[in-house]
Write a structure and sequence with these properties.
13 helices, 0% strand, globular, transmembrane helix, transmembrane, transport, cell membrane
Length: 373
């Protein structure tokens, strides 16, 4: 009875997530050389794979709806990508650089404004027991430390510059080639494996690969559409409200929206820190608008565009966000849910194998009993 209950299901799901995170945290020294090689050599594969899952539905739609040959659909996708990149370089990059420079200059006023606010707050009798001077001193040290770390982080040697240029060149050369062949031959990959390597697929490995491919495809393509929706709506809302650096803040909100539940709140942090002291009313309106959009997105848009691809309970997601975020930061929070979804498919596959094995042993034992009689 307990085995078939929802409590059992949620307990196993959460324990599996915690066990997976514990394993990655404690054997990280084993995976470190692999991850280093992976980040250097297979970065183009990661980017091309992401773009494949984003644009493959478009190629399939053009072929299915307009009977457009796949090769022409791929050409159209490449024209679209080149157009987006050209527009980004010509129109958006100068604007982004200008906004980023202004934002960096404006960020210098945040600490003095915070200091004035704390000094005014210290005069209130209700907060007489709080040592605001110590808080200000500590914040000043932290602020200066952050600036020093940022400045030291952007200081690049010649070898680092050469390394970065070589990586960028490798990505720019390999990603289009890999993406072309993925879009062209991606659908035939599993049938090819079934005819060759997995010709005697007794364990149904092809079925597992199909499930994993469907899961990651729905998640990435749906998440990309959802991020685009958030970016456009937040950008328009910020322009109407009059929020400065609207493009940067909207882009940050779209990226952080990939983090379930916590993402929208993280996306609001730069707006609150930058706008609150000078324009508190605008900051309040921006918070209300973004949280309203998040409710629309979380209850209507996200479930429809992503569907049931993830199928992870909210409690499990919260546990993943808290634990993985503390271990691996923002990047870990971004990949936690899709990685766990893939791991979950593998666990379900192994569980089915175990169930089939037990069933076959049970049938074999029954046959042996009947023969002995």
């Amino acid at each position: 009875m307990f085995k078939n209950s929802k409590l059992f299901f949620w307990t196993i799901e959460i324990l599996s997530a915690v066990a997976l995170i514990w394993l990655l945290a404690n054997v990280s020294f084993i995976f470190k050389p692999v991850t280093t090689l992976f980040s250097m050599v297979f970065l183009p594969f990661i980017i091309a794979g992401f773009l494949y899952y984003v644009f493959n539905p478009l190629v399939s739609f053009l072929h299915r709806k307009f009977k457009l040959p796949s090769i022409w659909g791929i050409v159209l996708v490449f024209v679209l990508i080149i157009g987006i990149c050209a527009y980004t370089v010509i129109a958006l990059v100068p604007n982004v650089i200008t906004q980023l420079s202004s934002l960096i200059n404006a960020s210098g006023n945040v600490f003095p404004e915070l200091q004035k606010w704390l000094e005014q707050l210290s005069k209130n009798p209700a907060f007489s027991e709080i040592d605001f001077k110590a808080i200000i001193t500590k914040a000043n040290i932290s602020y200066m430390d952050i600036l020093k770390n940022l400045l030291s982080g952007v200081t690049l040697s010649v070898s680092n510059v050469v390394n970065i240029i070589s990586k960028v060149a490798m990505v720019l050369v390999l990603v289009p080639v890999l993406l072309f062949y993925m879009l062209k031959d991606g659908k035939s990959m599993l049938p090819f494996l079934k005819k060759t390597v997995l010709k005697t697929d007794r364990l149904n490995i092809v079925g597992l690969l199909n499930d994993m491919n469907a899961t990651i495809s729905k998640f990435i393509s749906g998440a990309a559409i959802d991020c685009l929706f958030i970016f456009v709506t937040v950008f328009i809302a910020y322009l109407i409200i009059g929020i400065p650096y609207a493009f940067l803040f909207a882009a940050f909100a779209a990226v952080t929206n990939l983090i379930p539940y916590l993402g929208p709140y993280i996306g609001l942090i730069p707006v609150v820190l930058t706008v609150t002291f000078d324009h508190p009313v605008k900051a309040l309106i921006a918070i209300v608008v973004v949280l309203t959009l998040q409710q629309i997105d979380g209850n209507i848009v996200y479930p429809r565009v992503v569907g049931n691809a993830v199928q992870v309970h909210p409690v499990t997601i919260i546990v993943l966000m808290l634990v993985v975020g503390s271990l691996y930061g923002l990047v870990g929070m971004l990949i936690a849910v899709p990685f766990y979804s893939l791991a979950k498919e593998i666990v379900k596959f192994l569980w089915r194998l175990w169930e089939n094995h037990k069933q076959s042993r049970l049938v074999s034992d029954e046959n042996e009993t009947q023969i002995s009689k």
